[in-house]
Amino acid sequence: MEIFNGMVQKPIIAVTSRTVYREIPGKPLVGIQPDFMVPQNHAECIIRAGGAPVFLPSIVERNYCKTILSAVRGLFIMGGDDMDPALFNEEPHPKLGLVDVQKGNFEFLLIRMTLDRDMPVLGVCGGHQMLNIAAGGTIYQDIYSQTDSTIKHRQELTQSVPSHYVTIEQDSKLYEIHKTMELRVNSTHHQAVRDIGEGFVVTARAKDGIIEAIEAPEKRFAIGVQWHPESLAADLPAFQKIFDAFVEECTK
Predict the structure, then answer these.
(1) What is the CATH number of the domain that holds 168?
(2) Number of domains the chain contains
(3) Catalytic (active site) residue 250
(4) Which residues form the domain of 11?
(5) 195-245: per-residue pLDDT in tens?
(6) How far apart are CA 58 and CA 38, in angstroms?
(7) Of 42, 65, 107, 125, which is the active-site residue?
(8) Could you report the per-residue pLDDT of 126-184, keeping only the tens digit for each?
(9) pTM of whole model > 0.85?
(10) In the annotation, is 230 catalytic?
(11) Collapsing DSSP states into helix, strand and coil, what is residue 95?
């Protein structure tokens, strides 16, 4: 953290948002209004780590992204709906769900610019998948029809409860953060990383081989995790660690 006029300045962390749509009663000419939404627990984890989150509307415009990145110290990519297969040159699979095209296009552009600047970036769930796609990787559009997965990756329990185990590579920043090779995580996805993006390596897998975490060893901090640590951190402090490490890097 920087000191300015005797006050501690927290690092500003940009946080992407989801697009949600609502009907506007009594306004038939307007119809459906898009809004941008960020769950509160994302902000809480960043604030606990010593950061100051700012939330971004999904505006697909290079100068806007450039301005945002010049004003912040790090980027957090939240999860959301399914990935747009057009971003990795595929046609939509029959099992593809709802796609937020605007969010995907915005995050794709923003992540590429963030990686070019070597600015710290953390992605969770869909954000982890988008981090891989923006680096030139691909995903399985549907785990169960495209792999031999034997684990339930979309739990019916609340996200605040861990579901299955992942194995973490010992030679990784993720291991340095968690100090364990096995972690029980929550799981709310039916898509998963397939081909790894340029500069990234696999750092965690589920017991069925599904990729659960990636990172870019040559970057300051570029990590994606398939689980939702923000939904676990309040009750299980071990999951706050990744936010602490991320924000700490953003202060340097």
Answers:
(1) 3.40.50.880
(2) 1
(3) no
(4) 2-250
(5) 999 999 999 999 999 999 999 999 999 999 999 999 999 999 999 999 999
(6) 12
(7) 125
(8) 999 999 999 999 999 999 999 999 999 999 988 999 999 999 999 999 999 999 999 99
(9) yes
(10) yes
(11) coil
